[in-house]
Amino acid sequence: MTRKNTIISALILIIFVLSLLALLPVDSERLGRKGLHLGLDLVGGVHLVYEADVSENATEQVRNMDRAITTIQKRIDKYGVAEPIIQQLGEDRILIQLPGFTDIDAAKSLVEQTGFLDFREVELNDTGEPVTLGDYLAQEPLQFIDRGESDRRVFVAVYYDTEGNQENKTVAFLEDVNGTIGLADAAGSPVGNAELQEYTDSLSWIAARGNEGTHLTGEFLTDAAAQIDQSDVVPQYVVSIEWNSQGSFIFDQIASQLYNAGEYGSPQRAIGIFLDDSLLSAPQIRQQSYQGSGQIEGSFTPNEAEELANLCKSGALPMPLKQPPLYQEKVSATLGANFINMSWLAGLIGIVLVMIFMIAYYRLPGVLASLALIFYGALVLALFKLIPVTLTLAGLGGFILSIGMAVDANVLIFERMKEEMRTGRTLGAAIEAGFNRAWSAIRDSNVTTIIVCIILFWLGSSIIASAPVMGFALTLGIGVIVSMFTAILVTRTLLRLALHSPLGRKTALFSIDRGKK
Amino acid sequence: MFDIIGKRFWFFLISGIIILVGIISLLSAGLPFGIEFSSGSMLTVKFEEPVEYDQFKEELVSLGYTDAIIQSAGEGQFLIRTQVLTDAEKTQVESTLTNRFGQLSEAQFTSVSPQVASETFSNAIIAVVIAAIGILLYVTWAFRRMPRPFHYGTCAIVALVHDALIAMGVFSILGAILGWEINLMFITGLLAVIGYSVNNTVVIFDRIRENLTKGIGHNFEAVVNNSLVETLSRSVNTSLTTLVVVLALLLFVGATIQNFVVVLIIGIIAGTFSSLCIAPSLLVVWDKKEWGRFIPGRRFSDKKA
Q1: Is residue B41's pLDDT more than 70?
Q2: Testing the interface with B: which of A459, A474, A480, A512 to mutate, by most B Cβ within 10 A?
Q3: Which of B7, B10, B282 is nearest to B152 (CA)?
Q4: Which residue has the higher pLDDT, A58 or B51?
Q5: Both B120 and B64 in a single domain?
Q6: Which of A92, A112, A448 to mutate to test the interface with B (most CBs of B within 10 A)?
Q7: Cβ-Cβ contacts under 8 Å for B184 (sequence gap 6 or more)
Q8: B96 shares its domain with B10
């Protein structure tokens, strides 16, 4: 028994240390972004629920929802919102949560806008070489290098992530506003040369136009689909696109221009596909004429091909969203800042008061229960961080409530112990009997709370994904489950340790005589 | 030794009065449903300069929002609740207010469409019903070895209904006086507390069962009272520790989750009272068939402790 107890003690100590290791960097940041996930009510943000206007059949509808979500995701990504949540809710609804982004009107127009798909080519200078942002930055005053094209330029920087995948980022625009040509940043605000110096290599993209000057846009596209190209030795995922008759005509004219502009593989031969001014893909033109259909190649994964096809096809959202949104909520950040500290204070005061109460009433067992409570707090918070659980005010409330409830198991055990000792058992026997007999009560008493937590989580997630309700249900549920473990295992182990130490001989520390009767 | 059960009719009287007041309030004032259940928009605006409530209200009325509920929420800060506002209407309200009272910032805005509100309402009811069924199944299971499971189960459920009625009654009164509203968090708090407090009842009933099988005491009332006293320190301590942390929540976090925390507090107090004083007492009343005592004017002769 003692040997087993030593192993369990060691195990508890290890779990405690691991919990602290997982948790402690938070302490330095006081619940900063990198630490625990904080809900909208704490960091501020926007919560929207839209209903899609769907009239097609069910299977089509589901596919369309995926496309709508991808499209919205792309749009939001441009704004650099940290950890946005964009999900399908139920059959035909879309949930959008933007933590830290409090401009609800901007968020709504971003989601509700109809996306614009267009095709662009790289601007060339007099000698037929690609024009970069650096070329424009070197100019004073600014003027268009390709005089024939007076519409705006889009500058795209190319990055490679750690896995070598190419990522495109629109860094600037060059636009003629009322006769003055000026540079603007990605959000459209005027920007000085100095801020753009790091992007000098970014290519300048201009509208791809047919011989009549018609800009090739998504309007001329009839279909886009991911396919497997079997013609190569290794089958490749490609995106095939279909044009309508006018589009086919314009596209062939553009293909012929680009084909003759440079070598295969050079920027001159690329056709850029842009959605809302973001470069989706820039495939190479391989032939002078496509006659209505073409393929975008690249080392796509099936998902990437599907996504690109969706974006090309949708451009705009695949279906309109009903306006106004079914649910909209905006919380300003200033409201939350204070509450984080207050919640921690409340939690701390709650824990300390409970400890004082337990120690005053149960003496040594109370001290051990308090140690178990500290262990409990560390373990639960570590779990919140690792899972991660998004903490809202109500979620913190659930955690704090669970502290009060966690003690219940100990109270049940200690009361039972006292009774066993009154019937004449020794301390050791009373401890074991106390645990054995109290266990069924502890288990039973947590069943209903867990049932309720499951129902509440469903209720919270069912319609608008209410973060407070879900957060409360989750934190309380986790708290209750962990508390069963800490009450039984930790308190029992600590009590056994105390029993075999010199403390075990001082029965007064176990407050046996304080009982009634 | 305490004689708790002997005072049972006092407990029934206390509960009865509180519930009666609550029911009167529920019937006359009803439950104050928030926009989550009844749809509408809620806008909190904050002015840089202090603004008089009356002037603020006057301005909104002149805009045509005669039904709007306006609450002062601190210095230069107001909460406006209206029907669902369109973007244009919201812009108009904000610009009119800015013209009149100076720069304002929008601290919070929530808008719930009628569709979402009615779905939330029906799902809340579904949740309450499922929770009730879940608790009922649990109670049936927990009392499967009881001598008369139906009695025990029914008394535990009556205690729950008692807690829910008190919480709703108190919120109806708070709604009428302070303008508090019932939202999803109210339901959440209520279910959490009910789920929690049913355990107190179960622990006490469990002890009654244990003592009955031991055969201590010949009189059912005495056994119930003994069991109650034996588990009293557990019941009180558990409720106290929970109450302490919830009070800490109320004092330090308050504000936006105030209503929620108050439901928890009411629920814990009512739940403790019902599991200590109401549920076991009802058991005894049932056992002794004392129902006649509840009917005024009819003396019950068999009453003997």
Answers
A1: yes
A2: A459
A3: B282
A4: B51
A5: no
A6: A448
A7: A459, A460, A466, A468, A469, B36, B120, B124
A8: no
Total domains present in chain A: 3
Same domain, A486 and A420: yes
Measure in Å the smallest separation between the Cα of B100 and chain A Cα atoms. Answer: 23
Contact A349/B at CB under 8 A: yes
- Pair A408, A441: CB distance under 8 Å: no
Would you say the C-alpha torsion B80, B81, B82, B85 has a positive or negative sign? positive
Residue contact A472–B192, C-beta within 8 A: yes
**A90–B contact, CB cutoff 8 A:** no
- A221 beta partners: A243
> Residues of B with CB below 8 A from A412's CB?
203, 234, 238
Q: How many interface pairs between A and B have CB atoms less than 8 angstroms apart?
A: 209
* Contact residues on chain A for B112, CB-CB shorter than 8 A: 326-327
pLDDT in tens, A281-304: 888 888 888 888 887 777 777 777
The CATH number of residue A509's host domain is: 1.20.1640.10
Phi, psi dihedrals of residue A241, rounded to the nearest 5°: -125, 145
Q: Kindly report the nearest CA distance between residue B192 and chain A, in angstroms.
A: 6
Do A280 and A397 sit in the same domain of this protein? no
CB under 8 Å to B19, separation ≥6 — which residues? B162, B165, B166, B169
Percent of the residues in chain A that have a pLDDT greater than 90, as a whole number: 9
User: Hey, what amino acid is at A115?
Assistant: G
Shortest CA distance to A515 belongs to which of A410, A420, A404? Answer: A420
Are A302 and A179 contained in the same domain? yes
- Reported as a single tens digit per residue, the pLDDT across A39-67 is 787 788 899 999 887 655 556 666 678 77
pLDDT over 90 (residue A8): no
What is the average per-residue pLDDT within B65-70?
A: 86
**Whether A50 and A25 share a structural domain:** no
CA distance A400 to chain B (A): 6
Query: B116 burial class (0-12, 13-18, 19+ CB within 10 angstroms)?
Result: buried
B131: chain A residues, CB-CB within 8 Å: 451-452, 455
Q: Which of A63, A377, A105 is nearest to A226 (CA)?
A: A63
Range of the domain at B202: 5-34+116-294
Beta strand A85-89 with A166-177: parallel, antiparallel or unpaired?
A: unpaired
Is the CB of A455 less than 8 angstroms away from the CB of B131?
yes
- Distance to chain B for A206, nearest Cα, Å: 36
ipTM: 0.87
Q: What pLDDT is attached to residue A288? A: 83
Alpha-carbon distances of A111 from A62, A330, B88, B196, rounded to whole Å:
19, 15, 17, 42
In the listed set A250, A285, A314, which residue is the last one of a domain according to the structure? A314
Domain count, chain B: 2
The residue type found at B135 is: I
Give the CATH number for residue B274.
1.20.1640.10
Of all residues in chain A, the one with the smallest CA distance to B236 is A411
pLDDT at res. A156: 92
Which residue in B145, B216, B237 has the most chain A C-beta atoms within 10 A of its own C-beta, making it the best mutation to test that interface? B237
Do residue A135 and residue A277 come from a single domain?
A: yes
SS3 call for A352: helix
Q: Which residues contact A4 (CB under 8 A, 6 or more apart)?
A: none
The parent domain of residue A75 ranges over 45-113+321-329
Task: Give yes or no for A459 touching B (CB within 8 A).
Answer: yes
Please name the residue of chain A whose CA is at the shortest distance from the CA of residue B185: A469
Q: How far apart are CA A170 and CA A156, in angstroms?
A: 4
Q: Round the average pLDDT of chain A to a whole number and report it.
A: 81
A106 & A121 share domain: no
- The CATH number for A104's domain is 3.30.70.3400
* In-domain check, residue B304: no
